[in-house]
């Protein structure tokens, strides 16, 4: 168990010390906790125990000495509240907190030794300036901008000689990766003047499987629900290159063939309402669990009415049998046309009665990850197959790329729209599960 040193002023009683000891860490968390480097970087898989370690570091940093200022910073203020606030309050012995020392609105706790713990959000960088911190724990670093650390938070440590802990999961080769590499450089490094100096940085990489509280079978089960690259990042804690092809598992030799339309099976249509082109992908879910893209409708310089009429011309028999469902771009519920109707109202007027969409646009990366999982899951299953007649869909899956060094889709080629249409269907019908891993969550 972890012991926190008592302060000379207001030393914790034995009862309080026992309460603190209940914040026990598993072996690898303890390795990080006992390390004395000024800057520590923890790259860890999902549910490894990042929150428990963060909380323990925060409390230790505040009680070890008097009059310390300790911050926990999450990507947003609401995330800081959701991730840490209630758990942190419950973990600090009441005898260590000043009377009326908990401020719910500002998420601030004042301890009897004069130390202050406060939770912050990186979405308001101006609120992070102008203080001297003794310790800052930056959580979910992969979702925080580099500038927030370099120009806002790092200067707050200068006058105090304060320390920083960076915690997160990989999301490409970003500033979090750069900090991780600083910690891998060894105990002695060369400074700007070429002198050998002690390295202030230390870093670790912990896959989820290294947590003793998560059963291996639970992690293996997640391979069925995720694409290989997402699984490698989120569970294996590996940094993966986010540049290159968006739909990286797609392979003509694996996914393309003769996958004909079957009039006996229901139809599912994914639609993107970009004007040039208007894009629709026609899919059928097979009895064996596969999903076949059997047709596409891609019209340049067109509109919703013309696209809907073309789909109705091709599939009027299926429409009569109510075998057609449409999964469109949610923007179609808001966009007005010359005749005063939304895109979805136009489709309904044409006879498409079953239209399903999310009220808010699903995050772009969620749609992409869902399609990639259908192309190939982390355990190797291939669910999505594409008929060779779907030339624009094949082009989209092959040629849509990210902007160099970012997770933003490069739209200059104009190849992304048919893939977007597929993504609206996939995200609604086959969303990636919000994983609840069985086992102790610490």
Oligomer: single chain
In which order are the strands of the major sheet placed?
3-4-5-2-6-7-1-10
User: Can you say what the CATH homologous superfamily of the largest domain is?
Assistant: P-loop containing nucleotide triphosphate hydrolases
% residues in beta strands: 15-25%
Look up the CATH topology of the largest domain: Rossmann fold
- Report low-confidence residues grouped into runs of 5 or more: 1-10, 437-442
Radius of gyration using CA atoms only: 26 Å
The biggest beta sheet is recorded as:
8 strands, mixed
CATH architecture grouping of the largest domain: 3-Layer(aba) Sandwich
Q: What's the N-to-C terminus distance? A: 14 Å
Q: How would you sum up the global shape?
A: elongated
The sequence of SSEs as H and E is HHEHEHEEEEHEHEEEHHHEEEEHEHHEHH
